[in-house]
Amino acid sequence: MKIFLDTADYKKIAELSSTGLIDGVTINPSLLKIEQEPPIKIVREILKVLPDAEINLQVTEQDPKKVYEQAKHIANLADNMIVKIPCDKMYLPIIARLIQEDIPVNATLVFTLNQALELAKLGVNYISVFVGRLYDNNVDGLSVAESIQNMLDTYDFDSELLVASVRNAEHVEGSILFGADAITLPVEVFNALSESPLTRAGLERFKQDWEGGPHAQLLE
Ligand code: E4P
Fold first, then answer.
1. How far is the CA of 108 from the centre of ligand 1 (A)?
2. How far apart are CA 111 and CA 127, in angstroms?
3. Residues with CB under 6 A from ligand 1
4. CATH number assigned to the domain with residue range 2-192, chosen from the 4 options 1.10.472.10, 3.40.50.720, 3.20.20.70, 1.10.10.10
5. Helix (H, G, I), strand (E, B), or coil: what is residue 59?
6. Residue 48 — pLDDT band, cuts 50, 70, 90?
7. What residue's CA is closest to ligand 1, atom 5?
8. Whole-angstrom Cα distance, residue 95 to residue 11?
9. Among 39, 45, 65, 198, which is 20 to 30 Å from 32 by CA?
């Protein structure tokens, strides 16, 4: 399962890139709003630390013609850029055109299996289903995500599922259990993945046993 970071904080991305676990980054206008630096600087900094990872940057234009132009601009920034486009009906022809031109597309704001079918038929690279926002609206987000993954696998579509709008470690474990292709995580959820109180307690016990034991050195 690919793991992306759901943030525009390039300093955090640089720090976490050393884990060797980061396959990509997802950025949307809300995440850019949090940062105090120009978006183009942010993207260039991310490209420096993750030159081979998949950098998913969302369009900010609304008009379909301008969305197309902005998508081309984003794609031209680097070979590993992926253009995030909302899956609204008015953008479907734009998505189809970009795919025909071999521009990688991540269709975002996906909430239903039917939307996902359309996007898979167009051949988008990623279908971003927003599980957290589904739960906010009393819909079982992981079930919707699982049904999309099943559809992609059953019909052998090339598109990959990207579980987005992840709020906690349970969403990650649920995604692992149904075999999600990819997931994007806020920094705090990513950091929580390797946390277990039993690991901490075990570490403390090994430390105490070693320090209270008879040996001064391990290998001498
Ligand atoms: C990522 O592609 C999405 O834009 C992001 O996960 C949305 O998360 P949110 O629902 O917490 O804003």
1. 9
2. 10
3. 6, 26, 28, 30, 108, 128, 130, 132-133, 164-165, 184
4. 3.20.20.70
5. coil
6. very high
7. 165
8. 31
9. 65
Q: What tokens were used for 81?
A: 């850029």
pTM for the structure as a whole: 0.96
Residue with tokens 């959820």: 189
Written as six digits, the tokens of 153 are 């696998």
DSSP code per residue over 2-20: EEEEE---HHHHHHHHTTS
User: Residue holding tokens 């071999």?
Assistant: 102
Q: What residue type is 20 in one-letter code?
A: G
Write down the mean pLDDT value for the chain: 98
Tokens standing for residue 201: 């307690």
| List 11, 12, 41, 84, catalytic entry | 84
Tokens of 166: 């992840």
